[in-house]
Amino acid sequence: MKKKSSVFFALLLVFAMLLTACGTSTGTNTQTQNTPAKGSAPTDVSKAESSVVKVIAASDPAKLPDAAKNRKDTLIVGTTAPSGKFCPIYSDSRYDAWVTDLVFDSLLMNDAKGNAIPNVAESWDVSEDGKTYTFHLKKGIKFSDGKELTAKDVEFTYTSIADPNYDGPRMDAVMDIVGYDDYHNDKGGKVANLEGIKVIDDYTISFTLKDVNASALISNFGYGIMSKDYYGFEKGDTQKLKDLFLKPMGSGAYLFKDYKAGQEIDFEAKPDYWKGAPKIKNIIMKVTNADTQIQELTTGGVDVDIVAARPENVQLLQDAGFLDVLHFPSNSYGYLGMNLRLDKFSDKKVRQALMYGLNRQGFIDTYYKGYGQVCNAPASPVSWAYTDKLNDYAYDPDKANQLLDDAGWIKKDDGFRYKDGEKFVIHWMTYTGSKYVDTLIPIVKDNWGKLGIEVVPELMEFSTLSTKVYDEQNFELYNMAWTLSIDPDPSGIFSIKQAEKGGFNSGGWDNKESEELIQQGLRETDQAKRKEIYQQWMELANDDLPYIFLSYADDAYGVSSRVKNLVVSPYEEWTYNVYQTELANQ
Prior knowledge:
Blueprint: H1 13-16, E1 54-56, H2 66-69, E2 74-79, H3 94-103, E3 108-110, E4 116-118, E5 121-126, E6 132-137, H4 151-161, H5 180-184, E7 197-201, E8 204-208, H6 216-220, H7 228-231, H8 239-243, E9 254-260, E10 264-269, E11 282-287, H9 293-298, E12 304-308, H10 311-319, E13 323-329, E14 332-338, H11 343-346, H12 348-356, H13 360-367, E15 372-374, H14 397-406, E16 410-411, E17 417-419, E18 422-423, E19 425-431, H15 435-450, E20 454-460, H16 462-471, E21 477-483, H17 491-494, H18 512-523, H19 527-544, E22 547-560, E23 563-564, E24 582-583
Parallel strand pairs: 2-11, 19-20, 19-21
Antiparallel strand pairs: 1-13, 3-4, 5-6, 6-8, 7-8, 9-10, 10-11, 12-22, 13-22, 14-21, 14-22, 15-22, 16-17, 17-18, 23-24
Helix pairs in contact: 12-14, 13-15, 18-19
């Protein structure tokens, strides 16, 4: 339901989400699956509710290490270090979104197929003109401070996103609401309310949109509800929300207890949770990276973690005996993002040259070893709207060189290209602790170096990179991955409205035809017609190249055999129903 991504909940988020560090998993692989080893076979177990999830069951659960056996009331989940934005309307990475998933509840959720299902809202109605959504809230849901969640809290949450000083990534959830422009542009405090949001009574609230938005239900109503009493602020004073990033308080299944930056985040079950007391008392999100993930899993240091879907990793997990391996096509893709405001990237010929001049298939073969495929558009093959009628940009240095020549970047005697006296140098910001990055760097430097382009990698922590890319837009080139929304609407990433600081269109892609197609897709409610629109949009993006598209891969989880009823799938994070997850040795 939520937008996931490196900034979508996996975002999107939604996308929501949420920014995915490519050292773990970056994409979708619909062509290959893990091959069972040692005579084992994929087996349906409680961890896999979705038919697309393949499970290689543990061969010898008795090998469970003492470290895990003795941890009877605590689940430890490996995570890339979050950025510390533990607020449902500010979280900008998949890992921050996991935190907010545990602490906050949203109006709606989604099932394994991506359909909207009740949550805080136990039912909803849509007006005949398709513009007004009326939600009926379940009574008796309480925040962890004991106060009841009401429609006023829902109103506060969404009005906060429309605040004139809001600078987070969730603007797309409210931009289409009637009165947004008046409220958002009012710096003097004269407009007190967002016209399109109406609190009918304590348990009923409606949202009226300016126009039909076919993605609204599945895209906009999956954000955690914040307590107005706890988070409330005077219009314009959004700093209060930021001051509470490390003190999140919601109505979710778990209480936030402690955060040790770069180490772990601790949670404790809320015994009076409205869906029922969580079956696991404590959860720890422990920071791991590509160098430590396998060791932590095989020694019992963590119970659950995402690992790169590669043969050697799968084999190591299987060899441990007590680990189940879950893998499935991920609704995501990896990419290199360019700052299109810079002259060096503003010419489409240059962007196409960079695509032709990068041996992406060679990278896929080297890194994924049969568990990945080349990405050519900002969409995943898991989406119902996907098309493969795209330019594949097969590695062609001669074509790349010709395009650079045509763009006015001329190679000199020193082997480098120059234009108007400027040497073609690309400063590439990327992140530490990732084997994906370690594999990609020498290939990019070599391939583009042969074209006459100097590439200068600059490594930093993922949270620092996220700040530079989204909050400051201070970069030339970077790499991340998107975990996409269920609905194929790309506006949350590529709308020109998202090009403001804090938005997801950090590269500043501004394409009139793209904007028109995005609007057409949002206004069309017939899915077959929407599919045609989004396929046309993908073809446009494939030609104009807002990104250098890189890779699809499977998501692969290592899960201790002591963990029961953990649900993950392309549209479900481990946090979605974790209150029902159990530990076998409790």
